[in-house]
Specification:
- By secondary structure, the chain is α/β, with parallel strands linked by helices.
- It has one domain: P-loop containing nucleotide triphosphate hydrolases (Rossmann fold).
- It has 5 helices and 10 strands; from the N terminus they run E-E-E-H-E-E-E-H-H-H-E-H-E-E-E.
- The strands form 2 sheets. A 6-stranded mixed beta sheet has the order 6-7-8-3-9-10, with helices on both faces. Strands 2-1-4-5 form a 4-stranded antiparallel beta sheet, covered by helices on one side.
- Strand 9 and strand 10 form a beta hairpin.
- Helix 3 packs across helix 4.
- The longest helix has 15 residues.
- The chain is globular and about 50 Å long.
């Protein structure tokens, strides 16, 4: 899988001019307000007010509907609060048909709890959202600071990265934990709307 994205846009005095071309596990660092989330949301298709192009595994998804992009974007709000854990992981499919897969994913991602998602902690919700993303097998998962509520974020990122590699899924993740950068295969930094490849 390969992600090729070029996003150019301006909002007032802020100018975003960012390019990324890579595959595997990709880490993006940068200060708050540098443009990381804007760039990632453009890739995910959450808005289209930009010039450029988004290619995923050779497909041009720049103007594709969210459901057809092959991209799942995760942040602290991307959970279905009214569902139980297993139903969330497989939604809209019936979880009773996927008990083996659910059990395996839960074990890998440290989901040793159950109940309504609305009753879970932020870190637990993010584990469930990540399990759901892996279950549905997109081309790309974007994790925008989803590890802030997870105490063992390093173990979590290792686990989801291993599951993603097995499924041929690329991951782009943002984290403010300095140690998380060492888990990536490729590292970028966003500064004042410009994305630079570090390694």
């Amino acid at each position: 899988m390969t992600v090729d994205a070029t996003v150019r846009m301006s909002r007032g005095a802020f100018v975003l001019n960012a390019e990324l071309s890579d595959s595997g596990i990709i880490f993006i660092s940068g200060e708050n307000g540098s443009g990381k989330t804007t760039f990632l949301r453009a890739i995910a298709g959450h808005f289209s007010e930009f010039t450029g192009r988004v290619m995923v595994n050779g497909r041009d998804v720049t103007h594709a509907d969210l459901q057809r992009r092959g991209i799942i974007y995760l942040n602290s709000d991307t959970v279905l609060m009214n569902m139980d854990v297993d139903s969330h992981i497989t939604w809209p499919r019936n979880p009773d048909r996927y008990r083996g897969e659910i059990k395996s994913l839960k074990e890998r991602l440290g989901i040793d709890f159950s109940g309504k998602v609305s009753e879970l902690s932020l870190g637990q919700r993010m584990r469930v959202a990540a399990a759901s993303a892996i279950f549905h097998g997109p081309d790309l998962i974007i994790m925008d600071e989803v590890t802030s509520g997870i105490s063992d974020s390093t173990v979590f990122i290792k686990s989801i990265s291993a599951a993603a590699r097995e499924g041929g899924i690329d991951i782009i993740y943002v984290s403010h934990n300095p140690g998380d950068v060492d888990l990536a295969e490729h590292v970028y930094r966003m500064e004042n709307g410009t994305l630079s490849r570090i390694s």
